[in-house]
């Protein structure tokens, strides 16, 4: 038995009934769904929030930027600050924070207090995601880890496909305050569900700065972190401006952009579960296929996406490939650092969220100063570099 297998058998084998395990996995997926919905819901409500609180749409955009950046720092800091606290209690505390933060957003009398509530949302997102991303190894058998991880990250895709559009629709009809109040109510439901189904999760080890630093000595972790930075940075540099790309490069009417983005989200959910299934067999090969697919899909917009049909097809293929990124790279980190899953996962979540913000920022600079086409080349180039990094780890037994 290898050291990885020994660790799995000693610390990852759940002792709860199988139905309870999967109920816990589903409850954590509900949590990730609400967290991502809370993070991105302001995108569809910027105009109404800005008008109500007398700020520009650009300033209102801080509602999205602030929690993403806070989450990047909270991901490693929250597990480190709580030490050996039972992870069940930590997740319950973070979901409680999410419930109160969204309630505070819904009643904020001015924009300063609203942004303050979004800081709390960022803390909840970073801390919850850092723990949840590696939680599958604590809830199910080793053979079921990729499937459980796919379910947990399915909450991310579901938020993009259903949570944000439905929340925006509710805000349009009833007001943005009602939308955030409703999100707070759903977070309370998630909290109660977690209380009922989540088993005790004693901390396997306290997270310390030294332990976080030690992860960079692990070549598998280094490559996983590098691939995450490159793929997520490149994706958001390009995807942030996918709407103008579809309209200006593919000639697609603005009224069809929304349905196509919905299709992108559906394809992403499919990609998430397809990747989850493939990862149970070959982690390295699956991650490489995803990176290569992204390296092709984005630049091909410039060659084959010049028609409405071509642009629509490439968008769906792009969504299918990107949908597998989270589950593939998180599984990579679990395999690369089996005895420090939480530490490696917290670093991964941190760079993931940071790369989202920096990628969107870089894309904006390129679109404003160079050309819209430039972000598609950048996205493809970053994915290609990520593919080369992943390929270089082909002899690393831990991530094969």
From TrEMBL:
Its membrane topology is listed as: Multi-pass membrane protein
| Annotated transmembrane regions | 21-38, 58-82, 89-113, 119-141, 148-166, 178-202, 223-244, 256-275, 287-305, 311-334, 346-366, 372-391
Give the location in the cell. Answer: Cell membrane
Report if keyword Transmembrane helix is assigned.
yes
Read off the PROSITE patterns from this record: MFS
Cross-referenced SUPFAM superfamilies? MFS general substrate transporter (SSF103473)
- A Pfam short name: MFS_1
Q: Which residues form a coiled coil?
A: none
InterPro entries under this entry?
MFS, MFS_dom, MFS_Efflux_Transporters, MFS_trans_sf
* Domain Major facilitator superfamily (MFS) profile: start-end pairs: 24-398
- Primary location class: membrane
Q: Keywords of this protein's UniProt record, alphabetized?
A: Cell membrane, Membrane, Transmembrane, Transmembrane helix
PANTHER family from the UniProt entry: CHLORAMPHENICOL EFFLUX PUMP RV0191, PURINE EFFLUX PUMP PBUE
**Identification of the protein by name:** MFS transporter
According to its UniProt entry, this protein's organism is Streptomyces evansiae
Lineage at the top is: Bacteria, Bacillati, Actinomycetota, Actinomycetes, Kitasatosporales
């Amino acid at each position: 038995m290898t050291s990885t297998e020994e660790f799995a058998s000693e610390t990852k084998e759940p002792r709860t009934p199988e139905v309870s395990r999967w109920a816990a996995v589903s409850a954590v997926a509900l949590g990730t769904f609400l967290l991502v919905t809370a993070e991105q819901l302001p995108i569809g409500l910027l105009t109404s929030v800005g008008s109500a609180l007398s700020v520009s749409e650009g300033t209102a955009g801080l509602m999205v930027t602030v929690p993403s950046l806070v989450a990047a720092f909270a991901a490693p800091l929250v597990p480190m600050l709580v030490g050996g606290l039972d992870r069940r209690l930590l997740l319950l505390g973070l979901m409680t924070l999410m419930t109160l933060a969204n309630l505070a957003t819904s009643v904020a009398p001015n924009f300063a207090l609203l942004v303050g509530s979004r800081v709390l949302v960022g803390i909840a997102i970073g801390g919850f995601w850092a723990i949840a991303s590696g939680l599958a190894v604590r809830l199910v058998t080793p053979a079921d880890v990729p499937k459980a991880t796919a379910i947990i990250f399915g909450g991310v895709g579901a938020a993009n496909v259903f949570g944000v559009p439905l929340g925006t629709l509710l805000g349009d009809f009833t007001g943005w305050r009602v939308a955030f109040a409703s999100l707070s109510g759903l977070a309370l439901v998630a909290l109660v569900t977690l209380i009922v189904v989540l088993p005790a999760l004693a901390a396997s080890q306290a997270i310390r700065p030294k332990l976080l630093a030690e992860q960079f000595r692990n070549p598998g972790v280094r490559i996983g972190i590098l691939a995450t930075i490159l793929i997520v940075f490149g994706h958001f540099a390009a995807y942030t401006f996918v709407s103008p790309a579809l309209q200006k490069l593919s000639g697609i009417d603005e009224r069809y952009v929304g349905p196509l983005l919905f299709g992108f989200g559906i394809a992403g959910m499919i990609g998430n579960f397809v990747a989850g299934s493939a990862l149970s067999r070959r982690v390295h090969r699956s991650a490489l296929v995803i990176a290569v697919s992204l390296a092709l899909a984005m630049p091909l917009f410039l060659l084959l996406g010049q028609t409405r049909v071509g642009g629509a097809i490439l968008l769906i293929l792009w969504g299918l490939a990107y949908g597998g990124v989270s589950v593939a790279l998180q599984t990579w980190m679990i395999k690369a650092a089996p005895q420090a899953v939480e530490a490696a996962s917290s670093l991964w979540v941190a760079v993931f969220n940071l790369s989202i913000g920096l990628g969107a920022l870089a894309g904006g600079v390129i679109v404003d100063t160079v050309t819209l086409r430039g972000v598609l080349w950048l996205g493809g180039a970053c994915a290609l570099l990520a593919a080369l990094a992943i390929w270089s780890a082909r002899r690393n037994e831990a991530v094969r």
